[in-house]
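We store chain and fold; thus.
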Amino acid sequence: MSEIVAIITEYNPFHNGHKYQIDKIREQIKDATIIAIMSGNCVQRGDLAFINKYNRAQIAVECGVDAVFELPFPYSCSTAEIFAGAGVEIASKLGADYLFFGIESDSLEQIEKIAFAIDTIEFDSELQKLKQDGFLSYPVLREKALSNLGLKMSNSSNDILAIEYIRAIKNKGLDLKYRAIKRKGACYKNLEICDVMSASAIRESFYRNGNILSMPNKATDILNDMFENGAINDRNATNRFLLNSILLKNPVDIENIFDVTDGMGYYIYESAKKCKNPNRFTDDLSSKSFTTSRLKRAILYAILNLNSFDKSPKYTTLLAVNDKGKALIKQNRKKENIVILTKHSDASKLDEKSKMQLEKSLKLDEIYETLYMLPSAPANAYKKKPYIK
């Protein structure tokens, strides 16, 4: 079988930069089977995805990926460390030979230096000293600790994830080679119209004026169909739902949710009570102590009563596949390294903790479709099937 290349991604939405990455991979490894480990309906920064996971996966396969597997909730909606760690584990269990990722920096060597430094005694010592100076968010503490060691931390989300991919591969002892591709196009917050825009800029342009920009033609066609059917996340409706759900919670209960610490639950609840514009509830969240992404993730954890989860993913869901990808699935089912769900009855192979995680993920999927621009009745998430090209 051809060499297997994994990409850990969100495709929120799939754009010209993603197509550029796939083309670069095929230049380097001609006959690669490219698999994407893709976030489900909830993404790493704590947002609900722009369009649903099955249609995002369909677009990816139509644009050159051979199979798309889900990075399931809550891994898809966690810190960069947990997100990356779960992603590389799934890639490894699916038999990937390589992990490819995008970077903003000119030097992969510099990213490797930071990745290796974070797991040293020296870094931990600097971190503990800085914690004594007052409560700051972890990204700020990390940047200061690395600076004290003579290293400059990149603030790019791509570079931060690259650091965590490298750490995870090393710390988990995985036999997974990695390569970086320099990201092409505008930066994350740049809204200027160009051939390669960031996913956030594409979403913002759509929400502001209905434009669909910087996407391959096949992706644009599918997205246009979804727009006509109103099957795109309504961010105003989502914010109102999140606000109302938090107001129904007891702040004491929020404090007991996974990754909620140091009064965060009370902060979230009080922010909901003081919110002046329900359509912007999560957009206006800010704190010196907690990143906005962490607060948004905590809100979703609280709504789904997530208290803990298995740090090592035991399953993934097949979202889309072509003929080349089918051979990989057949091979993996013989090895049984990871449960690949294609229908709900496959869940019988999971342990009880994984079944509980899956149930929360399916509940999130049902809620998700009620928050479309033209809301759908909650679809039966148990009957969803992968897109087959």
Summary: The CA atoms of residues 214 and 347 lie 38 Å apart. The two ends are 20 Å apart (CA to CA). The chain has three domains: 4-106+176-188+218-228+309-388, 108-153, 235-303.
